[in-house]
Design a protein that fits this description.
The complex is a heterodimer of chains A (460) and B (586). Chain A is globular. Chain A is built from 14 helices and twelve strands. Helices cover 30% and strands 12% of the residues of chain A. Among the domains of chain B are: 62 residues, no CATH class; 150 residues, no CATH class; 118 residues, no CATH class; 64 residues, no CATH class. Classes of the chains: A alpha/beta (460), B mainly alpha (586). Chains A and B meet through helix 2, helix 7, strand 7, helix 9 and helix 10 of A and helix 2, helix 13, helix 21, helix 22 and helix 23 of B.
Chain lengths: 460, 586
C-alpha cells in the first residue's frame, strides 16, 4: 500500500504553483496519496505511574499491589473505582471523567478503549539500568538506549529514511511546545511552535513590515551557517503558517479539549493535520508525572486530575480527527503515548512513588486493534526488577517499529533504531507487514557526531 | 518630499491583500521588490524559496556566514555579561595595552563584584520600590521575613500573595542584568540558579522563598562550592521542590539525593546505574570512580530529617532549615566508599555525603564542563575543561574556589579565540538589545508596560525560574536556535523599538539616540550596526540594512527626520539589526 506512485506529478509541481495553490496544494498534490498516515508522539515527562493508570484488579497481583500501595491503591468500589479493561486489569477512573462545567465529551478515553481504538501495551521500556529522568528520556527519544551522543532523533531518522514520501512536503514534522523534542533532534524540516496564532512577524511599524521581512529573509538566506540555516527554516515556517492558517479554529465532532497548555497543544496538532500540508509526524509533551510526593490517595487527588486531563486531551484529539469521509483523519493517525520509565511498585511515605522501571505505552488510532498487549511479568517480589519495580518485557522500540511498518510503511528499522534487531509485531495496529531492514544506517550515514551535549527537553 | 520618501506600494496593502501576495509566493519567495514600483532597486537576489519545509533542490548559499572573531571587548562583554552598553567597549579598552591585559584586568574586577560601584542599578531598584528585594543580607533573616510575609501573610504592605516576591524578583533580575556593572555576577547567578534549578511555581512555599535561594547563590557565586552546595541543600525552596523536607526514616524519599548526585555534583557522566557498590572500580586514591543507585539510596538515608520549620511538631513555623532528629535514620551507611558509623551527631551524615561529592574529581569535571559550556562554547575545548576541573578539585576547600575556577576559564586563550559557537538565549537577546539601545526602562510591579514586556518575553520559552524539571534551562544552541525561541525573540525585538509609555515616550529611543549628524542611509546603517553589534557586518549584509533604510534613495543623501515614514523606518532598521544573525552570536 505504500508505493511512491505520485512522485512524477510532485516533481513537476513548482514551488510557485504550490504556493499559489495555497491550502489546496495538498489536495492537488497528495490527494489519494499512498502514504498519508500521521504519527503523533506524546511524551509524558517525569515518569508516568503506569501501575496506577492500568492496574491489577484481580488475582494475586491485586494482593501484591494493595500491599505495596496502601494509600495509592485505586479501589475496586466507590466513587473512584477502577474501570474494568478485562478480567485482570482496570483503568484509572480519571480516564472516564471530566470536570464539572466543561461539557460532556462525545467519548472518553475509556470509551475509546471499549471501542477498540486504544491499544494498551504493558511492561514496556528499555533494557537499561538507569533511573535518571534525563538519560532515560534522551535514550528513548534518540532511539538509541545507552547512547546519549546520537546527533539525530528517531523521528528525524524515520523522516530521512522513509522512501514512500513525496520529495516535497510543506510541513512534514511539527514539534509543539517551546522547545523541540529530542526525537526530532537534527531535523531541518520540523516546524516548532505552540500555536499558529502568534507564529508570525505581523509586528513593528506597519508600513515597513514587509520590507523588513524581505531584508530579514535576505540576511538569513544570503549566507550559510548553522544559525543562518535555522533562521531560514524558521522564516519558511512563518510563511507556511501565515499562508495556511486563517484565524480561529473550531474543533469538529463536538470534541472538547481541556483548556490547558496540553489541551491547546493537542488542538494545534489537529489544526495542522487538517490543513493537509503533508504532516507526517508531530510531537508534544505533557509534564508533571514525577510524583514523588502527594500523588493522591484512594484513586483521587493529583494523579486523578492529571490522568483526567491527559485522557480528556487524547479523547478530544481523536474525536476531533474522527470525522467522516475525507475528514476521517483518525483512520490515518496513530497517537503514541509513552514516558521515560514507570514508578516503583512500593509507595513511599509521602504518598508518592519513586523512580521505577517498566511502564505502560498507549496507542490510540482508528487503526488500532484495541485491547491489552505485551507480557505481564507479575508483581510478586521475585518477578520484579531488582525486587522493586515492574520488569520490562517489551522493548518500546518494538511497539514503535510496528507503527513505523504497518502504519507509516517504513521498514528501515536499522536506520531508525540502530542496534535493534528482534522485531516482531505485537498486533497493536492494523496494517501490512513489511520485511524489516536492519543494518548500520546511523554511523554510515554520518548521523553520528561528536555531540556530547546530552541535551534533553525535559519537562517533568 | 513625500514622493521620494513614500514607502513601496506594497507596504500600504491591507492584510488581506498581503495574504493574497503570500499565496502567490511573492512575499514568501523573498521577491517582494518585484511588486514594488519600477523605480525601486532590486534587493540582493536570493534563491527562489518555495513555501515548503521539504523541497528538492534547496540551494545552500555559497557565502560563509560564520562570523569572524570580534575584538576582545565584544567577546568579553557578551560572554561575561549581557552585552555592551554605549561606552562599555571604550572602558574595557582603557584597561590595558593589549587584549590579554584588558581581559585580565576586567576578569579581576568582575570576580570581585563588591569592589564595583553599582549606584545606577541601586537607583533603578529604589525607583522600582520593591518590597521583597534586598531586604536583608543575612540569608536566615531574609528567609524568615519572606516566610512571615508571604506564607503567613503578614507583609506590612498587605501584598501577601506568594506571587508578589516571585514577580518582584523577576523584575529585579531584569534590572540587574540591564543596569548592574557587576555583569559577571549576574551571569553566574543565572548559571547557578539553573544548575540548582528549582521550579518557582512548584508551590506557594517555593514562590515565597525562592528569593532566598537567589540570595544564597548571589553570595556564593565566587565563593566555595561546598559551602554553596550545603546552603542550597538546606534551603527551603530546594527542600520542598525535591521533597526532602518530608523524608524520614519511616518514609525515605530519594528525589533530592538522586538529583544531588546526578545534577548538582557528579553528573550522569559518572553514573554507573544499578551495579553493586562493591563492583564500582576505584581510582588511584581508592575512591569509587562514579556512583550507583545504592549510593543514592544510602545518601537518602543520610539526609532523612533535613527539613524546614513549617509549624509542625513544635518546629516554630519560621521557614528556616530545621533538622528533625526523630526522623533521621540513625544506623550506619556507606556512600561513595565512605563508611558512616551509626549515631553520628546531627547533620554529620549528610555533610559527609556533601564532602565526598564536592571533593570528588568527577564533580570537578562535571561542573567545569558546564561552566565552560556557559562561558565559551557548547562543545568547549577539553584543555580548558581539564584545567578548570583541576582547579575545582585542588581548591575544593578554598574560600574563593569558584572565583579561581571561573578565572581559569576566562583567562584561557581559547576564550578570546572562540566566537559564534553559541546563540544568545531569549533573555540574552532581550537584555542585550535593551543595553545596546540604552533603554530607560525600570520594570516595576503593577505597571502595565512592564507586564506587556514580560508577557512577550515569556512567549520566547524562557520565562524566568519556570523550567519545571531539576536540570534547568538547556544551555546549548540546539535548544534555542529552533523556531519558537527564534520567532518569539524576533517579535520581541521588533516590538521593543515600538515600545512606548502612555506619554508616547519610547523606552528604547532609537531616534533620540541617533546623533544629528547621522542622517543618510549609509550613516544610519553604520551608526546602528556599530551600536548594536559593536562590529561591522559582512558587506552583503550591510547592504541589506542600507537598502532597507534607503528605499531607493541615494544612500548618501540625508533623509528627512521630520517625516513619520522615515522615523518609523529608522526604528524598523534598528529592529532589523537586532533580528539579524550577527546580533545572535555569542
Amino acid at each position: 500500500m505504500h508505493r511512491p506512485t505520485r512522485r512524477g506529478f510532485i516533481t513537476g509541481c513548482s514551488a510557485a504553483v504550490a504556493a499559489y495553490a495555497g491550502t489546496s496544494f495538498n489536495t492537488l498534490a497528495f490527494g489519494g496519496s499512498d502514504n498519508d498516515d500521521i504519527l503523533i508522539s506524546v511524551f509524558l515527562r517525569g515518569g508516568l505511574d503506569g501501575l496506577n493508570l492500568v492496574l491489577p484488579i484481580a488475582g494475586s497481583d491485586r494482593g501484591h499491589y494493595e500491599t505495596a500501595r496502601p494509600n495509592l491503591t485505586v479501589p475496586l468500589t466507590g466513587a473512584n473505582a477502577a474501570l474494568p479493561l478485562n478480567a485482570q486489569f482496570g483503568f484509572h477512573p480519571g480516564t472516564n471523567s471530566w470536570p464539572d462545567g466543561t461539557g460532556t465529551p462525545p467519548a472518553t478515553l475509556y470509551d475509546l478503549y471499549q471501542d477498540n481504538k486504544l491499544s494498551l501495551v504493558l511492561a514496556t521500556g528499555m533494557d537499561q539500568d538507569n533511573r535518571s529522568h534525563f538519560d532515560s528520556m534522551s535514550f528513548m527519544e534518540l532511539g538509541t538506549p545507552g547512547v546519549l551522543t546520537t546527533a539525530s532523533g528517531w523521528l528525524t531518522r524515520h523522516l530521512l529514511s522513509a522512501s514512500n514520501l513525496p520529495p516535497e512536503l510543506i510541513m512534514p514534522a511539527l514539534a509543539v511546545g517551546n522547545l523541540q523534542q529530542a526525537s526530532l533532534r537534527g531535523s531541518t524540516e520540523a516546524v516548532g511552535m505552540t500555536s499558529p496564532d502568534s507564529f508570525s512577524l505581523n509586528i513593528g511599524p506597519f508600513d515597513w513590515r514587509d520590507a523588513q521581512r524581505v531584508a530579514l529573509r535576505n540576511l538569513y538566506s544570503g549566507a550559510d551557517s548553522w544559525l543562518h540555516q535555522a533562521g531560514s527554516e524558521t522564516l519558511d515556517a512563518i510563511d507556511i503558517i501565515e499562508l495556511n492558517s486563517d484565524g480561529g479554529y473550531t474543533p469538529a465532532n463536538g470534541a472538547i479539549y481541556p483548556n490547558t497548555t496540553f489541551g491547546r497543544h493537542l488542538e494545534t496538532i489537529a489544526r495542522m493535520i487538517k490543513l493537509d500540508i503533508g504532516l507526517q509526524v508531530a510531537t508534544v509533551d505533557y509534564g508533571g508525572w514525577d510524583t514523588h510526593n502527594g500523588q493522591g490517595s484512594d484513586g483521587g487527588g493529583y494523579f486523578f486530575t492529571h490522568v483526567e486531563e491527559l485522557s480528556r486531551g487524547l479523547a478530544a484529539l481523536y474525536t476531533d480527527l474522527n470525522g467522516s469521509g475525507g475528514q476521517n483523519y483518525a483512520q490515518r493517525t496513530t497517537i503514541t503515548v509513552k514516558s521515560e520509565f514507570g514508578r516503583r511498585l512500593r509507595e513511599n511515605a509521602d504518598r508518592g512513588a519513586d523512580h521505577g522501571h517498566g511502564n505502560l505505552m498507549m496507542v490510540l488510532s482508528g487503526q488500532a486493534t484495541g485491547g491489552i498487549h505485551g507480557t505481564w511479568p507479575g508483581l510478586a517480589n521475585d518477578q520484579l526488577y531488582q525486587g522493586a519495580d515492574l520488569e520490562v518485557t517489551t522493548d518500546y522500540r518494538r511497539v514503535l517499529s510496528e507503527i513505523l511498518i504497518r502504519r507509516l510503511g517504513n521498514p528501515n528499522l536499522g536506520e531508525i533504531f540502530p542496534g535493534y534487531s528482534d522485531y516482531a509485531p505485537l498486533g497493536v495496529v492494523n496494517g501490512t507487514d513489511l520485511t524489516p531492514i536492519f543494518g548500520e544506517g546511523i554511523s554510515s550515514d554520518g548521523f553520528e557526531s561528536g555531540d556530547t551535549s546530552a541535551w534533553s527537553t525535559a519537562v517533568g | 518630499m513625500g514622493d521620494v520618501l513614500d514607502p513601496p506600494e506594497l507596504s500600504s496593502t491591507s492584510t488581506a491583500d498581503r495574504r493574497q501576495l503570500l499565496r502567490q509566493g511573492l512575499l514568501a519567495a523573498g521577491a517582494l521588490t518585484v511588486v514594488g514600483t519600477a523605480s525601486r532597486p532590486a534587493h540582493a537576489t536570493v534563491p527562489p524559496s518555495a513555501v515548503a519545509m521539504r523541497r528538492p533542490g534547496r540551494v545552500t548559499p555559497v557565502r560563509d556566514g560564520t562570523p569572524g572573531l570580534p575584538e576582545a571587548a565584544i567577546v568579553a562583554l557578551n560572554r561575561m555579561g549581557f552585552g555592551p552598553r554605549p561606552g562599555d567597549v571604550a572602558a574595557f579598552n582603557a584597561l590595558g595595552g593589549s587584549p590579554e591585559a584588558r581581559l585580565a584586568a576586567y576578569v579581576s574586577q568582575q570576580t570581585q563584584p563588591a569592589s564595583i560601584d553599582d549606584t545606577e542599578l541601586q537607583g533603578r531598584l529604589n525607583a522600582a520600590g520593591f518590597e521583597s528585594v534586598d531586604l536583608s543580607a543575612n540569608p536566615d533573616t531574609y528567609l524568615a521575613t519572606l516566610w512571615d510575609w508571604y506564607v503567613n501573610d503578614n507583609a506590612p504592605s498587605g501584598n501577601t500573595s506568594s506571587n508578589w516576591p516571585r514577580d518582584e524578583l523577576t523584575r529585579a533580575t531584569f534590572l540587574r542584568a540591564m543596569y548592574s556593572r557587576r555583569q559577571l555576577q549576574e551571569v553566574m547567578v543565572d548559571f547557578w540558579l539553573n544548575h540548582f534549578n528549582v521550579y518557582i511555581n512548584d508551590s506557594s512555599f517555593v514562590r515565597a522563598t525562592y528569593p532566598h535561594l537567589d540570595l544564597i547563590v548571589r553570595q556564593n557565586a565566587f565563593g566555595n562550592f561546598r559551602t554553596l552546595l550545603e546552603a542550597v541543600s538546606r534551603s527551603s525552596a530546594m527542600l520542598y521542590y525535591l521533597d526532602n523536607y518530608t523524608s524520614s526514616n519511616a518514609g525515605p524519599n530519594e528525589n533530592f539525593s538522586r538529583e544531588l548526585f546526578e545534577l548538582h555534583t557528579l553528573g550522569s557522566e559518572n553514573y554507573l546505574g544499578t551495579l553493586e557498590q562493591n563492583q564500582v572500580p576505584t581510582d588511584v586514591d581508592g575512591r569509587p570512580v562514579g556512583y550507583v543507585d545504592a549510593d543514592v539510596f544510602e545518601s537518602t538515608r543520610c539526609f532523612t530529617g533535613w527539613s524546614f520549620s513549617q509549624g509542625i511538631e513544635g518546629d516554630g513555623d519560621t521557614g528556616l532549615f530545621y533538622y528533625r532528629p526523630s526522623w533521621h535514620d540513625r544506623f550506619q551507611k556507606t556512600v561513595l566508599g565512605v563508611f558512616i558509623p551509626q549515631d553520628q551527631d546531627e547533620l554529620v551524615d549528610g555533610r559527609t555525603v556533601l564532602d565526598g561529592l564536592a571533593s570528588h574529581p568527577g564533580t570537578g569535571r562535571h561542573i567545569a564542563r558546564k561552566l565552560c559550556r556557559r562561558l565559551i562554547a557548547d562543545q568547549p575545548p577539553q584543555s580548558v575543561v581539564d584545567a578548570a576541573a583541576a582547579v575545582f578539585t585542588d581548591q575544593w576547600q578554598a574560600p574563593d574556589q569558584l572565583a579561581q575556577v571561573v578565572q581559569t576559564i576566562l583567562l584561557a586563550p581559547e576564550l578570546l579565540a572562540t566566537w559564534g559557537e553559541k546563540v544568545k538565549r531569549p533573555f540574552e537577546v532581550a537584555v542585550s538589545a535593551l543595553r545596546a539601545g540604552e533603554a530607560d526602562f525600570t520594570l516595576k510591579m503593577e505597571d502595565a508596560d512592564t507586564s506587556s514586556f514580560l508577557g512577550r518575553f515569556d512567549d520566547t520559552g524562557q520565562e524566568l525560574f519556570t523550567w519545571p524539571a531539576p536540570n534547568g534551562f538547556p544551555d546549548v544552541r540546539q535548544a534555542w536556535m529552533r523556531m519558537t525561541p527564534r520567532v518569539m525573540s524576533w517579535r520581541l525585538c521588533t516590538w521593543l523599538i515600538d515600545f512606548d509609555d502612555d506619554q508616547g515616550r519610547f523606552y528604547l529611543d532609537v531616534l533620540g539616540q541617533t546623533p544629528g549628524s547621522v542622517r543618510s542611509a549609509n550613516q544610519l546603517a553604520d551608526f546602528w550596526i556599530d551600536r548594536l553589534l559593536g562590529r561591522t557586518m559582512q558587506p552583503e549584509d550591510r547592504a541589506q540594512i542600507v537598502q532597507f533604510m534607503a528605499q531607493g534613495i541615494n544612500p548618501d543623501f540625508d533623509l528627512n527626520f521630520n517625516d513619520d515614514d522615515t522615523r518609523d523606518r529608522v526604528r524598523s532598521m534598528a529592529g532589523l539589526i537586532m533580528m539579524s544573525p550577527d546580533f545572535l552570536w555569542r
